[in-house]
Design goal:
By secondary structure, this protein is mainly alpha-helical. 62% of the residues lie in helices and 5% in strands. Strands 1-2-5-3-4 form a 5-stranded mixed β-sheet.
């Protein structure tokens, strides 16, 4: 079962299954090109646009993600693209991830399992349950992690030093998308330390992996040091995130995990996948031969990925993109084992074919069919269904209003977490911090950051302030951050005039109203737009 060989001359059939699944995933990606930018995507687009204009990341434009995602968005924008170009990068991610997981699975297991893994990963990555339509960091990070694991040698006859260095460099590149890529040390340890050979060779391999990792990070830090922002990069991409995640207790983490898994349809969609993956894990861990690296690699990868998903304690659906490659690999191994069991059952050929079809239907067809109503929605409809009244659909509308009523050199400010408004308007934000969360969250540095934002607003005097009214945007808590909100509210009352509002009236799509506005708090208002007097 675990030999990477041609299976009874039927490899072409399994390759066709994988190819069909990848093509289906690409078609689903094409249908989702027009999904409006959400909050995170809006931040990446805004940061990339400002970086292309010469501003410094983590100084003039602040976000808690490392620079990798801004490089991808910057490339899409530099080529003259917008939302569609950004989402089109995910097509390349889908195809490359499928190809690499195929090669990685075939390298350590069977060709049939490799084909199933490629098909599973392609279809699962695009699933709405995991926000597969959004160009978030986890999908790019997963691609680099798979490539890193693939670069490691399979046995002592293939131990060229460059393979280990390349593995470390690719993990370093993945960490430049999200620091939780560091948790992927477990599968690397399994492949290097449990492989046949002398202890000295294993230690040398691990040292070379570390050297490649350090080289990638050193090059990145050197670039930002030349820009005078290396310390800011370290703080925002690492230090801030540590303080951010340490404020969430273990009991709260489990409640968040259960809520996200149930409310987003993860369990309903992928219950067969999880069940067959458990069979794959048991199959590997029960091995009695000497190939310990192959036996422990996939389970260790799944564990490390879950640690990465759990690091922040938030369990946002797109975080699970990191978990999908090892989960799909184990499910493919489990499916391969089930097919072997039916083949060895002694029953007729028709029974074996039906059993194989049932296994593939459960793994490949059922999960997609379970969320098929979401796949049929257009870009705006999908965003509205997934995110409710969050004004992602209206992002371009609000941006156009701001652009029409301001000069290019004037600034705007968003009291909330919608930097996509400034991106669509092509107007600078009055504050380097685009999200409200760092100012509201229970974080040791929040008081200092609030004061910094207030000073920037006072200095830059934004022409317009977009005041969000949704709790999901403001992340309001009963703590000293109320002082910050109150300070800005006072500023709006004295220096600004309420000019427009986005209303979400029952039975109607949200609409932007200018002129005669309903009183604040007496109507379902999504946001208010204030103009400086």
């Amino acid at each position: 079962m675990l030999k990477a060989s041609i299976l009874d001359g039927r490899s072409r059939l399994w390759a066709a299954v994988a190819l069909f699944a990848v093509l289906a995933a690409v078609l689903l990606r094409l249908a989702a090109l027009d999904v409006p930018l959400d909050r995170d995507e809006g931040m990446y687009a805004y940061g990339a646009w400002r970086a292309l204009d010469g501003e410094r990341l983590y100084v003039d434009v602040v976000d808690s993600k490392p620079p990798g995602i801004f490089a991808v968005y910057g490339l899409a924008l530099a080529l003259g693209g917008g939302t569609r170009a950004i989402h089109a990068t995910l097509i390349a991610v889908t195809v490359l991830c499928a190809l690499l997981i195929f090669r990685l699975t075939r390298k350590w297991y069977t060709t049939r399992a490799a084909c199933i893994a490629a098909a599973l990963l392609a279809l699962t990555q695009v699933a709405p349950a995991y926000f597969g339509f959004s160009a978030n960091v986890e999908q790019y990070m997963a691609l680099l992690i798979i490539a890193a694991l693939l670069s490691l040698p399979r046995d002592e006859h293939d131990r060229q030093p460059w393979r280990y260095v390349l593995c470390g460099a690719l993990i370093g590149a993945a960490a430049l998308f999200k620091p939780v890529a560091l948790t992927e040390g477990l599968p690397i340890l399994a492949l290097v330390w449990l492989a046949a050979g002398r202890t000295r060779q294993r230690l040398a391999g691990l040292a070379l992996v570390g050297a490649g990792f350090g080289l990638t990070l050193a090059l990145c830090l050197a670039y930002f040091a030349c820009r005078g922002s290396a310390s800011e990069l370290i703080y925002w991409a690492l230090g801030y995130n540590v303080g951010y995640s340490s404020s969430i207790g273990l009991d709260q983490r489990w409640r968040i995990l259960a809520y996200e898994a149930l409310s987003r349809g993860m369990l309903a969609r992928d219950l067969p996948l999880l069940a067959v993956a458990s069979i794959g894990a048991v199959t590997l861990l029960r091995r009695t031969d000497k190939k310990r690296a192959a036996a422990w690699f996939a389970p260790a990868w799944l564990l490390s990925a879950f640690i990465g998903v759990s690091a922040s304690g938030r369990y946002t659906p797109h975080y699970f993109q990191q978990l999908l490659p090892p989960l799909c690999m184990l499910a493919a191994i489990g499916g391969d084992k089930l097919i072997d069991i039916t083949a060895a059952s002694g029953l007729g050929e028709s029974y074996r074919r039906v059993s194989t079809c049932v296994i593939l239907l459960l793994l490949l067809v059922f999960p997609t069919a379970a969320q098929w109503p979401l796949y049929r929605l257009s870009g705006n409809e999908l965003s509205r269904t997934m995110f409710g009244l969050n004004p992602f659909v209206e992002g371009e509308l609000v941006g156009a209003y701001l652009a029409e009523n301001t000069d290019p050199e004037q600034t705007v400010y968003v009291l909330g977490s919608e930097p996509q408004f400034a991106y669509h308007a092509r107007r600078r934000l009055a504050s380097s911090i685009a999200f409200t969360a760092p100012l509201i969250e229970q974080h040791p540095d929040s008081p200092r950051l609030r004061q910094r934002v207030l000073e920037q607003i006072e200095r830059n005097q934004p022409r317009y302030v977009v005041r969000m009214r949704l709790p999901s945007s403001l992340v309001i808590r009963d703590d000293p951050s109320d002082w910050f909100i109150g300070k800005l509210e006072s500023l709006l009352q004295t220096d600004y005039q309420r000019e427009a509002a986005l209303l979400a009236e029952q039975g109607r799509q949200p609409r932007l109203v200018v002129g005669e506005l309903p009183p604040v708090g007496r109507s379902p208002i999504v946001l208010d737009i204030y103009r400086r007097k």
